[in-house]
Amino acid sequence: MIPSHLRITLIIVVISYFIVILYFLKQKALNLKYTLLWLVAGAVMGILVVVPELLTRTIRLFGIQDNMNGLFLFCIGFIVLILLSLTSIASRQNRKLRTLIQELAILDKRVRDLEKDGREHDG
Question: Mean pLDDT for the chain?
């Protein structure tokens, strides 16, 4: 059981977390589709603060005896999921950037060829 003063502190921290995420969204520092990942993380944190017995029961289902070990295991797992998601986003952006660079190079070559043809016809 979490002591009441710690639970209140953790609830304030989770609320502050949501405020920061929504502030970033408002300032357009985060795209809406990527904000969902961070909102889910905040919701999970909020649920675990309000209902800590849920974490204890879940940990026991996996056969983990110590609550702190289970909490660390879930945190590491969640961090890995976030990193995987962010790596996927970065990879997609890299592919889009490569395509745009190739298209720009093709357009640049066409413009230079047209300018060259135009100078040959004028001369």
Answer: 89
